């Protein structure tokens, strides 16, 4: 089996991938890239033309985008139990909340942080509508978690969504609601996530 190589930066979304790799308990080579020129070398641009991290190399396979990397790893190590079976109905919620967070939620958060207010017409054509609507939708998923997004088992979708929420709470970018706190408490049943929360002073 080829060695996994993760290109990342300590101040990047690659931290989500590193958390998942620790939870999976698989070995990998970590390559730290500084922002700027190190991400624009011809060698790295051949891996990720976006000149961003994280990027995962698995032999001849290259996967970029944090959600895609987590989904890839969950399927690569399917025996670890962090992805529903391909024929399981739980795959619907798994895909939904994985990619809803990677798409509309990420976009809504970025627009909010840039201080951009979309008018009603602009909200109709945007992929997320409004920040408030997008987060309300995410909370409907948390409200139906049992205790996780796909049911009783922690999945890669929980790790991706959960880390995003933990990041927002840590830097006071959102006010944690009772539903968010309840969900994070469920995530903390995993020892690696519990240690992360303690290191961030959130538990």
UniProtKB/TrEMBL annotation:
Domain of life: Bacteria
Protein name: Glutathione S-transferase family protein
Alphabetized UniProt keyword annotations: Transferase
Location of the GST N-terminal domain: 1-81
Organism for this UniProt entry: Proteus columbae
PROSITE patterns, per database record: GST_NTER (PS50404)
Gene Ontology MF term list: transferase activity
């Amino acid at each position: 089996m080829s060695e996994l190589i993760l290109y990342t930066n300590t101040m990047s979304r690659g931290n989500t991938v590193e958390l998942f790799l620790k939870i999976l308990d698989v070995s990998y080579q970590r390559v730290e890239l500084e922002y700027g020129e190190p991400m624009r070398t011809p060698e790295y641009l051949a891996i990720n033309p976006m000149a961003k991290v994280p990027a995962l190399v698995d032999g001849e396979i290259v996967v970029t985008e944090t959600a895609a990397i987590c989904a890839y790893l969950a399927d690569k190590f399917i025996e670890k139990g962090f992805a529903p079976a391909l024929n399981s109905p739980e795959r619907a919620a798994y895909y939904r909340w994985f990619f809803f967070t990677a798409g509309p939620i990420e976009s809504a958060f970025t627009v909010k942080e840039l201080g951009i207010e979309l008018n009603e017409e602009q909200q109709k054509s945007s992929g997320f509508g409004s920040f408030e609507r997008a987060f309300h939708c995410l909370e409907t998923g948390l409200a139906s978690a049992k205790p996780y997004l796909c049911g009783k088992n922690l999945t890669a979708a929980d790790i991706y969504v959960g880390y995003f929420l933990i990041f927002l709470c840590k830097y006071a970018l959102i006010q944690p609601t009772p539903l968010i706190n309840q969900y994070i408490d469920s995530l903390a049943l995993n020892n690696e996530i519990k240690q992360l929360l303690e290191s961030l002073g959130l538990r």
